[in-house]
Write a structure and sequence with these properties.
The complex is a heterodimer. Chain A is of the alpha/beta class. Chain A contains eleven helices and 14 strands. In chain B, strands 1-2-3-4-5-6-7-9-10-11 form a ten-stranded antiparallel barrel. Chain B has helices at about 5, 10-20, 190-195, 200-205; strands at about 35-50, 55-75, 80-90, 100-115, 120-140, 145-160, 165-180, 210, 215-230, 230-245, 250-265. The interface between A and B is large, with 49 and 46 residues.
């Protein structure tokens, strides 16, 4: 048996190549090449990845520190402006183009809405971040959906049953950082006005930047017996991301839905599996492109609201949510609902 | 969408395990010298070395407990079914920074024909084996995952050398010739995987028919058997398995299992 073990060790040497060296240049090369061969949005976002190599590669040599390598790689990533492209060093993470999304955190306060604007409010305990209620002294229902990571999206039908009596619903997806696109589709179905082609998805499947598999088409679901077709205002902000934005793809295809707030992040794709570097860092990136029925992409653009409005820090400090107030005003101006 | 947030982390492992455990009578392809029908149980340790560019540029190595269960019916020829399962950790990166988990499962069904003109003490067999092999590994509850599943036919040869009335040696070599091969897509995830993430068996058992141009491997077994009583034998054996998938994202795996167990006459 000892002989077998020795033989086995020899086999390992023969069959497997040497492990990747942990040097700054090799870590950079693995990272750059991996994205070059697998990242999906170079063309959609008009990124010249090879030119970025020419800019950043000369800054890397085997003498630089780990911090310096981190700075070079994150600066290169920032050109992608895609928060799905993330680098982790085990303690910290860096999301490309995420700084502007993070600013919106200070522009939203869920407790403020509950305290100042809602007559009643219920959390749905089975879901990740779902609650609903009614606006004070208004004939308007309110739903907050902060994640698409729940397990039972059909619970929305029960909520709609309760809110059906009101003349409008404000559906708040600010700070919704995504989850499962199927969850988004199921929630949207409760507001659907028919079966529409919503979007298509292609996954990168080759070494060339333009290599993608066949389109998969996605349609809105529709159940006329459980569908809220009165006016719906969707509130979104810069931190409405990913499956949160896919939700808006559905909602904005319905005639009775209006988006108010800020432009969304513009990051739609499914992220890759976690990727590994010899120095212990990990990273993720986008591997798909989502296209509208007309062939255009909102990646890097986001959903632009019909009515643009943002809270300032001063608004939040003075216990006001002017985005929500704008939605109420819009419902009165457009539909005489109050 | 964040795939890793939504996939059920334990489903993939549970399905693989269930598929293997729910299969009816399982048998091990070890030769039960002198027994017409026998059942065998084995316990051991499996060591794995793995390279899968789709999963990581880093080499993986590690091991875990290995279990085997088998049934064999032997007349002039040998019919056998076996199931084996191993689960453990794989380390990679500088100072084994990353730890992934793996499952390596195999179901084999074989028929080996006795080749004529042989001596009393040495017998030779040649035949075919059907195998379903699944090697699945993931990091941090499916934040990263990959797999190789191969279902197909191998050619197998085996020799048994009877040392004396109580002891014997055997060795076998199997070479896959035609496989239904399942691997993740180019980017690890695609719409098919996303849509079927709640049905991992559907993902693992989808694939394409392939031959030596894309999938190659070799399985070599060496074992020693000692008769403890007329109805009971003790054996120790070593199984070396090498698998290679040749595609844009190459993968290679080398596993070695040392195990021991008992064979009961039925």
């Amino acid at each position: 048996m000892a002989l077998l073990l020795a033989l086995f060790s020899a086999c390992e040497e023969i069959f497997l190549r040497e492990d990747e060296p942990d040097t700054p240049t090799n870590n950079f090369e693995i990272f750059w090449n991996d994205l070059d061969q697998h990242y999906s949005l170079f063309e959609v976002r008009n990124i010249d990845w090879h030119n970025l190599y020419k800019i950043y590669r000369p800054q890397v040599n085997d003498e630089i520190s780990s911090d310096e390598l981190w700075t070079i790689m994150t600066e290169m990533m920032e050109n992608l402006d895609d928060s799905h492209t993330t680098l982790f060093d085990g303690n910290f993470s860096y999301k490309a183009g995420y700084a502007v999304n993070e600013q919106s955190i200070a522009e939203f306060d869920g407790d403020l809405i509950i305290d100042q604007y809602l007559e009643f409010h219920h959390f749905v305990s089975s879901e990740d971040n779902l609650s609903y209620g009614k606006l004070k002294e208004k004939n308007i229902g309110y739903i907050y959906l902060g994640s698409m990571g729940g397990q039972k999206p059909s619970v929305i039908d029960k909520i709609i049953n309760e809110l059906e009596q009101y003349n409008a619903i404000i559906l708040d997806v600010r700070q919704n950082t995504g989850g499962d696109d199927r969850y988004s589709a199921r929630i949207a179905k409760a507001f659907s006005d028919g079966e529409h082609l919503i979007y298509s998805v292609e996954t990168r499947n080759g070494v060339n930047h333009g290599d993608f598999d066949n389109k998969n088409f996605y349609y809105s679901g529709f159940n006329p017996s459980i569908s809220y077709n009165k006016p719906v205002i969707v509130l979104a902000d810069r931190k409405t991301i990913s499956a949160g934005e896919v939700f808006l793809l559905y909602m904005k295809s319905f005639a009775h839905v209006t988006q108010i707030g800020d432009t969304t992040a513009g990051d739609f794709s499914t992220v890759s599996n976690m990727r590994f570097l010899p120095n212990g860092w990990t990273y993720l990136y986008s591997i798909q492109k989502f296209l509208l029925p007309n062939g255009e992409s909102l990646d890097g653009i986001g959903h632009i609201p019909e009515v643009y409005v943002r809270n300032s820090q001063a608004d939040i400090n003075s216990k006001k949510d002017i985005v929500l107030e704008e939605a109420v005003e819009y419902l009165f101006d457009q539909y005489q609902i109050e | 969408m964040y795939f890793s947030e939504t996939i059920k982390p334990l489903h993939m492992k549970a399905i693989i395990l269930s598929l293997m455990l729910l299969l009816p009578k399982v048998i091990h392809a070890q030769v039960s010298e002198g027994y017409k029908s026998s059942i065998a149980f084995n316990l051991g340790y499996q060591k794995n070395y793995l390279q899968d560019i789709l999963f990581s540029p880093l080499n993986q190595n590690g091991g875990g407990l290995a279990l085997g269960l088998g049934y064999e019916r032997r007349t002039q020829h040998i019919f056998g079914v076996c199931i084996s399962f191993s689960s453990g950790d794989l380390k990679s990166g500088e100072n084994d920074h990353f730890t992934s988990s793996y499952i390596n499962a195999n179901l084999g069904l074989e028929y080996l024909m006795n080749i004529a003109h042989q001596s009393e003490s040495t017998k030779f067999y040649l035949g075919g084996v059907y195998n379903t092999r699944v090697l699945f590994y993931d990091w941090s509850d499916l934040d990263a995952f990959s797999f190789t599943s191969a279902h197909g036919i191998s050619l197998k040869g085996m020799a048994i050398k009877k040392i004396n009335d109580k002891n014997s040696l055997r060795t076998s070599l199997a070479l896959p010739v035609l496989q239904f091969l399942g691997r993740p897509p180019y980017n690890g995830i695609d719409e098919f995987i996303i849509e079927n993430q709640d049905e991992p068996a559907k993902i693992i058992f989808s694939g394409n028919l392939t031959s030596l141009n894309k999938y190659s491997g070799i399985e070599w077994k060496l074992g020693y058997t000692h008769h403890l009583s007329p109805r009971l034998k003790w054996d120790i054996h070593n199984t070396l398995l090498f698998q290679k998938v040749k595609e844009i994202n190459d993968s290679k795996s080398l596993s070695n299992t040392i195990s021991t167990g008992l064979t009961f006459k039925l």
